[in-house]
Amino acid sequence: MPELIEQSKIISANGCGLPQLHKQRQDNCGLYSHIRGIPTSYGDASSLTAGVRSFVEEAVALCQPDQVHICDGSEQENKMLIKSLLESGTIVPLPKYDNCWLARTNPGDVARVESKTFICTEERSETIPTPKDGVKGTLGNWISPVDMEAAIQARFPGCMKGRTMYVVPFSMGPVGSPLSKIGIEVTDSAYVVASMRIMTRMGAAVLQQLAKKEEFVRALHCVGTPANGVVEMPSWPCDPERTIILHKPAENLIVSYGSGYGGNSLLGKKCFALRIGSTIAKREGWLAEHMLILGITNPKGVKKYITAAFPSACGKTNLAMLNPSLANYKVECVGDDIAWMKFDSQGVLRAINPENGFFGVAPGTSVETNPIAMSTVFKDTIFTNVASTSDGGVYWEGMESSLAPNVQITDWLGKPWSKESGKPAAHPNSRFCTPAAQCPIIDSAWEDPAGVPISAMLFGGRRPAGVPLIYQARDWTHGVFIGAAMRSEATAAAEHKGKVIMHDPFAMRPFFGYNFGHYVAHWLSMEKRGQVPKIFHVNWFRKSDEGKFMWPGYGENSRVLEWILRRVSEEPCYENSAIGLIPADGELNVAGMKEKIDMKQLFSLPKDFWTQEVKDIRTYFESQVGADLPASIYAELEKLEKRVADL
Ligand code: GTP
Ligand code: SPV
Ligand code: MN
C-alpha cells in the first residue's frame, strides 16, 4: 500500500466523507492530552503518528465523543475494559472458567447484515458485475461516493456524544511480517475493543511499527442510536434500522454504523481482511480468501499445508481443528477463517492467518465433534449469545453430554430454558471469541512471518443432495470454475431465512471487495505467477433419502484428507467422473469406520440432479456475471454440460 501516505494527504484534504478540519496545535505541556479539545482519558496521544492523528482528529470532530481512549493492548487496559463492560451490563462473568465472559446482544443484532453492506467505487461496474436486464444482482452492493458521504452525514455527526471513543491500532498478521497489514479502528464499543484485542495483534507495538512505515487502513465504527433516540437495550446499544457497513477500497477506508456484532463491528475481520484485503491483493498480485489453513502430517512424517474455503457456518473451524480418526495422522491449525496467500521468490504459494483469535460458531461444538475447540475456549474467552448455566458456565446445542446434573439453564435472551422450550438455548449464530495461541494444536509455524507453503485448496459447502464427498479438479482452470460454481445451503451466519441452496462462489459472496468477474480473472492469472496448488471440492453434508447425513464428518474427514495428500503426491488413486477425479474403487480408506458407509450412494452422480445443476450454474453465470466472467470459465461449463449429458 505504498500509495497510502499520499492518500492520507488526499483524505485530509478532501475529507473522504469525514469533514475537513484544521490541524490542532499541541497544547502547552507538549503532550497531546487533548485531541481537538476532547480529553484523552487513557493512553498517550503523542504516540500517534501524523496520519493516525489526523484520522482520529477527523473522527473526533465528526462523532464528538466525550473522551478519547488510545489503546495500548495492555493487561491493565483490558481489566479496565472488562470492568466497564460489567458495569454497563454488556457482559456477565462466567465464574466456572478462568477470565471468561458472556455478552448478550440486542436480539435485533445477532449476525452480519449482507443487505446493508456496500462497496463504494466511482463506477458500479468496478464493484459488481452487471446483471442481466431485470435481474437483481446478488454479488454485493454498490454505493456511489456521493451516497456514501450522505449515508455518513445522516448517521455520524455527534453519534458519540456522551460516549468514549476508543482508538484501536491493530495488525492483521504478525506485527512486522511482510505479509501483514495495519489498521486503525476508531469505535465507541468497549466490547469491540476487548474482542479486537483477542482477534488481532492490538496495541502499542502496532503504533511503533507504524512509526517505521505509515501505511494503514482506516476503520470507523459506531454502535449508533435509533433515530427516535430510544435505546432499547442500554447494555447493547445499536441501531438495526439504520445499520450500514461501507467500504471505500480506493482510500482503504471502512465505515460501519449501527451494529456491534461480529463481522459488522470487528472491522479487521471481514471488512479489512477480506473486502478491502481482496482489493489490495488484486493490486499487489496475491489472494485474500475466506479460508482456513491447516497442517497435516501423515504416518511417514510428511507434512503438508492445506487451505479450505467453506461458506460461513459450513465447517472451517471444525476442519482447522480436526482430531483425525485415522491412526498416526496429525492435524495442526494455522487459522480457521481467513488466509492471505502470496507467491514467494521461489514461486511457492505461502499463506498467513491474518487473525490472532477464533470467532467460532458455538452450537454444534462439543467434546464429541471438536474436542480441540472445547479445550481452547474455557479461558480468556468472550462468548456472545450462548446460554448460561446456574453453575456459572455456558451451554449451547451440542453440549448436552457435558451438562452437569441439576443445573438450570438461562437462554441467550436471558430467560429460563428447558429442553421443552421448543427453541434453541443458544442463538444459532452464537460465538466464542478466543485467542488462537491457546489452541492445543496451534501449528508451530502459525506466526511465521513468511507464511506456510500451500499444497492443496479445498472448496465446499452444505449440499444435501447430488454432490459427492470429494472430487478433484482436473487442472487450475477447472478448479477456478469449481470455486465459481460453488453453492451451499443458507446458514444463520447472516440474515438469510430458510434452507435455500444459494450460490456462494469461493465462499466469498458476502466478502468480495470488487467485481466478481474480475476476481475470477485474478484467480486464473495466479497460474502464471507460480506453482499453483491442486484444487478439490468436498461435501460433508450429503443426506440420504431418510434425511440422515451419509458421512459422519468431523474426525472422519481425515480419511478424505488422506486421499487428498495421496493426490498431492500424484498417486494414481483416482478415476475419472463427469465432474472431476474421484477416489477409485477401494482407494478411499474406510477401514474400521463405526458407521457403514454406502459409498455407491455417497459418490453417485444422479443425471437429473446434475442436469439441473449445470442449468442453474449457467443461469447464474449468465444472469449475474454475464460478460465479466472470463471465457475460459464458460468453456469449463460447456465441458461439464457435455459430460453431464453423457451420464
Ligand atoms: P464461520 O465462522 O461462520 O465462517 O463458520 P465455519 O465455516 O468456521 O463453520 P464451523 O466449523 O463453525 O461449523 C459450523 C457448523 O457446521 C457447526 O454446527 C458444526 O457442528 C457443523 N459441522 C462442521 N463440520 C461438520 C462435519 O464434518 N459434518 C457435519 N455434519 N457438520 C459439521
Ligand atoms: C462468518 O460469518 O463467516 C464469520 C463470522 O466468520 S463474522 O465475523 O460475523 O463474519
Ligand atoms: Mn467466516
Automatic annotation (TrEMBL):
<dbReference type="InterPro" id="IPR008209">
    <property type="entry name" value="PEP_carboxykinase_GTP"/>
</dbReference>
<comment type="function">
    <text>Catalyzes the conversion of oxaloacetate (OAA) to phosphoenolpyruvate (PEP), the rate-limiting step in the metabolic pathway that produces glucose from lactate and other precursors derived from the citric acid cycle.</text>
</comment>
<dbReference type="GO" id="GO:0006094">
    <property type="term" value="P:gluconeogenesis"/>
</dbReference>
<dbReference type="InterPro" id="IPR035077">
    <property type="entry name" value="PEP_carboxykinase_GTP_C"/>
</dbReference>
<dbReference type="GO" id="GO:0005525">
    <property type="term" value="F:GTP binding"/>
</dbReference>
<dbReference type="GO" id="GO:0005992">
    <property type="term" value="P:trehalose biosynthetic process"/>
</dbReference>
<keyword id="KW-0456">Lyase</keyword>
<feature type="domain" description="Phosphoenolpyruvate carboxykinase C-terminal P-loop">
    <location>
        <begin position="286"/>
        <end position="643"/>
    </location>
</feature>
<dbReference type="GO" id="GO:0042594">
    <property type="term" value="P:response to starvation"/>
</dbReference>
<comment type="subunit">
    <text>Monomer.</text>
</comment>
<dbReference type="GO" id="GO:0046327">
    <property type="term" value="P:glycerol biosynthetic process from pyruvate"/>
</dbReference>
<dbReference type="InterPro" id="IPR013035">
    <property type="entry name" value="PEP_carboxykinase_C"/>
</dbReference>
<dbReference type="InterPro" id="IPR035078">
    <property type="entry name" value="PEP_carboxykinase_GTP_N"/>
</dbReference>
<dbReference type="GO" id="GO:0030145">
    <property type="term" value="F:manganese ion binding"/>
</dbReference>
<dbReference type="GO" id="GO:0033993">
    <property type="term" value="P:response to lipid"/>
</dbReference>
<dbReference type="Pfam" id="PF17297">
    <property type="entry name" value="PEPCK_N"/>
</dbReference>
<keyword id="KW-0464">Manganese</keyword>
<keyword id="KW-0479">Metal-binding</keyword>
<keyword id="KW-0342">GTP-binding</keyword>
<comment type="similarity">
    <text>Belongs to the phosphoenolpyruvate carboxykinase [GTP] family.</text>
</comment>
<feature type="domain" description="Phosphoenolpyruvate carboxykinase GTP-utilising N-terminal">
    <location>
        <begin position="55"/>
        <end position="282"/>
    </location>
</feature>
<dbReference type="Pfam" id="PF00821">
    <property type="entry name" value="PEPCK_GTP"/>
</dbReference>
<keyword id="KW-0210">Decarboxylase</keyword>
<dbReference type="GO" id="GO:0071333">
    <property type="term" value="P:cellular response to glucose stimulus"/>
</dbReference>
<dbReference type="InterPro" id="IPR008210">
    <property type="entry name" value="PEP_carboxykinase_N"/>
</dbReference>
<dbReference type="InterPro" id="IPR018091">
    <property type="entry name" value="PEP_carboxykin_GTP_CS"/>
</dbReference>
<dbReference type="GO" id="GO:0019543">
    <property type="term" value="P:propionate catabolic process"/>
</dbReference>
<dbReference type="GO" id="GO:0004613">
    <property type="term" value="F:phosphoenolpyruvate carboxykinase (GTP) activity"/>
</dbReference>
<protein>
    <recommendedName>
        <fullName>Phosphoenolpyruvate carboxykinase [GTP]</fullName>
        <ecNumber>4.1.1.32</ecNumber>
    </recommendedName>
</protein>
<keyword id="KW-0547">Nucleotide-binding</keyword>
<dbReference type="GO" id="GO:0006107">
    <property type="term" value="P:oxaloacetate metabolic process"/>
</dbReference>
<dbReference type="GO" id="GO:0005829">
    <property type="term" value="C:cytosol"/>
</dbReference>
